[in-house]
Structures are given as C-alpha cells and as structure tokens.
Design goal:
Distance between the termini: 40 Å
Number of strands: 5
Number of domains: 2
Strand order of the largest sheet: 1-2-3
Radius of gyration: 15 Å
Helix content: 25-40%
Largest sheet: 3 strands, antiparallel
Order of helices and strands: EEEHEHHHEHH
Shape: globular
Length: 141
C-alpha cells in the first residue's frame, strides 16, 4: 500500500493505492487497523485533503443506482467508471454492482472521482460530482 491521502475534510477516511493498481478507502471507525497504520505513516506520509473535492451538497444526498448510472451515461462517463471500478478491490466491485443507491458524501465515491476524466481529458472536480448528482436527481425511474 502506498500514496495515502485524506479523502474527507474531517480526515476520517484515507485512500491507499494497492500494488495491483486498485484503491482501498479505509475509515477511522473501520473494522481494521489500516487507518491508524496509514495515519502513523506506515505507508508514507498522508497527503492533505484536496479541497476541490470537498462535498458541497447536503450530507446524505442520495440517488438511486439507475439514476447515478444514467447520469454517467448521459455525460459520457459510464464506460470509464465501469472500467475503473473493474480494476478495484472485490469489495468495491461488489458495492458498485449491488448498491441500490449512491451517497454524495461517500468517501469511496470521492476517492474514485480523482481518477475520472471528462471526455476532453479534464479531471472531474467536487463541483462536477455535485452537477452529476443534480442531473441524476432529474432522472425519473
């Protein structure tokens, strides 16, 4: 594990790069000691939280799985996100495949957004993620 970085403003979650190219998000209150080990520097210094990804929406903002994936499809991002998730750990793949809803304040979602690019190559920002949630909320199912 390497490249630890805080993915929430309260420093409650850390994202780690795994040797196989996958990501792992660990929470302060998680079931393992990985968060404490990462924060203590076992995997290198923990990078500061990137404020451009800060959650600006109301915490707990949620859209259905279909709404989320339809918004990604409409914006030309679904195939890229599916491919990205396909290279992540089994728990993340399971969550992506089986979740019935997606929360805007999810540490995993906020960690993933740092690896997604718009079709023109520009990186997604926290504001872009808010806009995707805005779009998803307009999709009626």
């Amino acid at each position: 594990m390497q490249n630890p970085r805080y993915v929430t403003a309260d420093h409650g979650s850390i994202c780690l790069d795994l040797p196989d190219g996958t990501l792992r998000v660990v929470d302060r209150d998680g079931p393992t000691d990985l968060f404490a080990r990462a924060e203590a520097g076992a995997f290198g210094p923990v990078a500061a939280f990137d404020a451009t990804l800060e959650v600006t929406a109301v915490p707990g903002r949620t859209v259905s799985r279909l709404q989320a994936k339809a918004a990604l499809l409409q914006m030309g991002l679904l195939d890229q996100v599916d491919a990205l998730v396909g290279n992540l750990d089994q728990m993340t793949r399971l969550a992506w495949a089986e979740a019935t809803s997606f929360r805007r304040d999810s540490p995993l979602l906020n960690a993933l957004v740092t690896h997604v690019l718009w079709p023109d190559g520009a990186p997604l920002t926290g504001a872009d993620l808010d806009a995707l949630f805005d779009l998803a909320e307009t999709i009626e199912v």
